Structures are given as C-alpha cells and as structure tokens.
Amino acid sequence: MSDREYHPAPIEGIGWQLSGGLPLVGASLDNADARRLKATVSDWAHGMNIDSSKVLIRTADDSDARQLQDVRRAAFAPVFASFRAILGKEISEVTQARDDEAQAEYLASLFLPSSGWELYVAEQEGLVVGFVSIKLNLETSMGEIGLNAVHPDFAGAGIGTAMYDAVLERMREAGMHVATVSTGGDSSHAPARRAYQKAGFNVGIPSIWLCQRL
C-alpha cells in the first residue's frame, strides 16, 4: 500500500477463501467460531502441498470481498500491535485509533471500478492464498504495487513471487517503464521487504513516519 492512502507506513494485506466443503468465513461468526475456523484452516493449509507453478492468478470479484475482509482483520492484528508498541500508548491511541476500520474501507474500495486499481487473487485448487493490487499510470509510465500479501500459512512457498511476476508482466504489457512499491520499515514488514527485493526491487528511498505528543 502506498503511504498516500494509509498511515503509518504502508502494509500488506492477505486473503484466502475456503473450499472443498469447509465453511466460508462470514461477518456473523462469533469469536469462538472464528477461532475454531482459524484452527481448521491452519490444519488444512499445513497439510496442503503448495506448488507455486500451479498457482492461478485471476481478477478478484465481489464474491472474494467478505473472505478477504475477515482474514485481513485477523492477519493485521500483529502488525497493528507492532505499530502500537513502537509509538507507545499515548500516541497510538490517537494515531492508530482507526487502523482496522480505515484498512477495511481501503480494501473494500479496491473492488470498485472507479478505484483506479486492478485487484488480483492467487488461487490454487480452489483456495485463494493471496492477493495483490496494482495501479497503472499511463501518463508517467509507472506501475505501482499496492495492498497485497500471502496468507502466512503459505509463506515461503513462492506464492508472492508468482503474484509479483504476474503483475510485473501485466505492467510491461501495459507499457510501464518503472514499477514501484511501498512498505513499512518496522520488523513486522521484514518479510515483505525481502519478498520485494527477491522480485527485483533493488533501489529505493528510505523514509520514516515521525510523531510527537502535543
């Protein structure tokens, strides 16, 4: 996610949906049901042999939205916790008050045709294991990778590489000359930084988001 859309430093989202007889995650789940479902998915995911060469990268549709929101909420809890730990209670209670709500609104906006973003999911054997958004700027010939990630149960299986390869090729076909991506500099974003470097992002301008209590 670009820091033009969300503060503090942009972070990556994740998403999956369930298939093969497993229930879909829904807003109606209570906390106990959500915990049981998370355990079920984790057990199933760890037993699944992910082959990144067989991953299908497809355009996201409205049927993916609710599942992505439920997973986003659970997956970003550690990231938001990292932000709060870094900033401290007094500042984070102000600056991070809308973390979940703001990110939920942002993710929902990516499904709108007017958003200016293209949203793709990575799917294998009916399971959505990741997603990635991109923006193509025809005036500047720059492509931007925005909100994206792979479900942590599938980390290290090459899913991120498959997604980035696909959208970078999409950028090339659209006539883009440069690809950009933004991510956080804290420890919770270390895997994202490594993934982007692996995908070929080898130059960058460091930045930092600073706060003070007034």
Explain what this protein looks like in three dimensions.
The protein is an alpha+beta fold. The chain has one domain: Gcn5-related N-acetyltransferase (GNAT) (Aminopeptidase, 3-Layer(aba) Sandwich). Helix content is 37%, strand content 16%. The protein has helices at 31-46, 65-75, 77-87, 89-95, 99-109, 159-173, 190-198; strands at 56-59, 118-124, 127-137, 142-150, 178-181. A 5-stranded mixed beta sheet has the order 1-2-3-4-5, covered by helices on one side. Strand 3 and strand 4 (142-150) form a beta hairpin. The radius of gyration is 17 Å and the shape is globular. The model is unreliable at 1-48 (pLDDT under 50).
Main traits of this protein?
214 residues; 5-stranded mixed beta sheet; alpha+beta; globular; disordered N terminus; Aminopeptidase; 7 helices
